[in-house]
DNA sequence: AACTAATTAAAACATCTGTTTAAAATAACG
DNA sequence: CGTTATTTTAAACAGATGTTTTAATTAGTT
């Protein structure tokens, strides 16, 4: 494997586990069995490495999500909100196969990106991959046309928060759940449970605001 | 004002804004206009300072939340989920008055605590303030008795995620919303919008899992 | 094989981190 | 006032951080 990919793989896991600020380049390079200077040689800086780790996922995910959402928008029957959110499941789970050792860390990284480093990652994603967002809001608008644009803005961000936060602490939660309910569970099981939740949240009746 | 409080106030704002890892003691002490060594003198270590910042909020909030939830549980009429979640509003907004310069940073700090520092803050809160959690689950069980304990466990964590995540990035979101919809909005307005969302999410119909 | 370009390696860089030390200043109390 | 105790100060500590430099190695090309 190339040095570049060895760095990306190690950074991926460590960033997801300990955050961007919480992971040093020395941890990454020693985990990857490469020289410390290799990061700055291949990526320029730590910030660029973070972008590269995220881009590896987004470049794979973005077209798939857009395709799935486009399919829903063009369907004959009016889609339900459950349909819209379910469109995310397959592409997200597909990331896991495409990863070597089990589950992908993408959603955990997304959670890190929202809180770590004062939102520079949010800027990166919304400017580099804007189509995912616009297609998504379009799909929701078809499924729930009564919802005003502003109300939708908020509910979509609530949803984003639910998903990202849940996945970024999913390991700990799965551990607790398995202890308390001795119910075998994995990432797919968590997703199965969160979809009805967010669908119901977005579909909540509209309330007046003064 | 005492040195101890000057440190707590400065740390509060900086921790909320840049995270626990992202804030150095030197930033805190220079913002607070006190000597660097004062932190270790008064609190012992940075970790203890973090606990102190959180305890200041929790010691104020915890009894109020428990009282509000107890009131709901003992009411004659069966409370709705909306009632249960609304019980959080007043105590949370009360934190703002009790703060000098505007809105409290409590929920932002809570968000930091879940992602930063590998969940040691979650351990701290659940062990130091367990009653809030048990009272809350009791209230939800009364409002929605059909929900199994496991399903409730998940939905409450989804809710936690929604709230915490939303509030930890509320400033940025409010900015965006005000630009796009020129609608004056503050923290209270965001809370007003998130309550129906989470209430609907928790109240979502039960789905079979294999 | 010989020369050039790309990569790796070890070391040093300056800066920042939390914490500790020891002296100075202030407060409290008999 | 004089004597403790408490608090503040400046300085230094040891270690970690991202980045750069310079030399050694490897790969690619003619």
TrEMBL record, chains A, B:
InterPro entries assigned to the protein according to its UniProt record, in alphabetical order: DNA-bd_HTH_TetR-type_CS, Homeodomain-like_sf, HTH-type_TetR-like_transc_reg, HTH_TetR, PsrA_TetR_C, Tet_transcr_reg_TetR-rel_C_sf
Q: Where is the HTH tetR-type domain?
A: 1-61
Q: Which residues bind DNA?
A: 24-43
Transcription regulation among keywords: no
**Keyword DNA-binding attached:** yes
Family matches, as Gene3D superfamilies: Tetracycline Repressor, domain 2
One example of the protein's molecular function in GO is: transcription cis-regulatory region binding
Q: Which PROSITE patterns match?
A: HTH_TETR_1, HTH_TETR_2
Instruction: Name the domain of life.
Output: Bacteria
Q: Which UniProt keywords apply?
A: DNA-binding
A Pfam short name? TetR_C_30
From the Swiss-Prot or TrEMBL record, give the protein name.
Answer: TetR/AcrR family transcriptional regulator
